[in-house]
Amino acid sequence: MEQKRIYKILQELSFSEYEAKAYLALLAANEPLSGYAAALQSGVPRSRIYDILSNLEKRGDIIASHAAPAQYLPVSPEILLKNRKKRTEKTFAEAQKLLASYETQVQIQDNIWNIKGRTEIFSRIAEVVGRSEKDILLEIWQEDSDEIIPQLRMAAKRGVKITVVAYGDLILDFADVHIHYPLEKNESNGRWFMFSADSKEALAGIVSLPENECRAAWSYHPGLVVPITQMIIHDLYLLEILKEHEEILEQSFGKNLIKLREKFHIDTLFDLQ
């Protein structure tokens, strides 16, 4: 009964049945054993014993000599349990951290969050910029850009590629800046921004209202991230086409494509000026 209980305990400590038999045989021998002798005394098939001993050695449960034939000794039960406890605590700590992070991320990804207030909006953008890894797409007015230029500069130093569509004469030595053609006041509907980080996190909102009335949406949700990312990319396409074929396009659609803008202009329901 006691022997079966020992096997069960060792199996709960991640030993296979054969590993438990081999370790206990080495422990009972009180002297080094060859692989052949370990197989005889443990009952582990000779065809499996060397693989089993190798697994135990890799885990630090036994030690092996480099003689020929190799000799094997078990670590003491005290050392075995101490090592197991240390590895288990490390694994639990890492699992706790990773699973908590995963749970939080899953909860965040299921929601589109409402950010209120200009200060809070730009603080959230700065936070997202700080954890960006590969690329940032940003569409913003020049007068609002100062709020996040320091964070963008630091991201660029980390190797993040930054592409900006700017309303106004914005110059950034660390980013690829594309100047959007100017909008008339009656068609701008205030100042907004769109922001995408690594194509997995996005914010968009209006920032020309009084401080506490500014609003933005922030999310990992693909239903928001994909449209915002693609909208900025679409504007980049348009600006590149306009730069290369400005004269031809303006013959058809007027200066800065005003005829197109007037044709598809929609008044906002809010006073955003």
From TrEMBL:
Domain of life of the organism encoding this protein: Bacteria
PANTHER family: HTH-TYPE TRANSCRIPTIONAL REGULATOR TRMBL2 (PTHR34293)
Name of the protein described by the UniProt record: Sugar-specific transcriptional regulator TrmB
CDD domains: PLDc_like_TrmB_middle
Gene3D superfamilies xrefs: Endonuclease Chain A (3.30.870.10), Winged helix-like DNA-binding domain superfamily/Winged helix DNA-binding domain (1.10.10.10)
Transmembrane spans: none
Residue intervals of the Transcription regulator TrmB N-terminal domain: 10-78
Cited InterPro entries: TrmB-like, Tscrpt_reg_TrmB_C, Tscrpt_reg_TrmB_N, WH-like_DNA-bd_sf
All copies of domain Transcription regulator TrmB C-terminal, residue ranges: 112-203
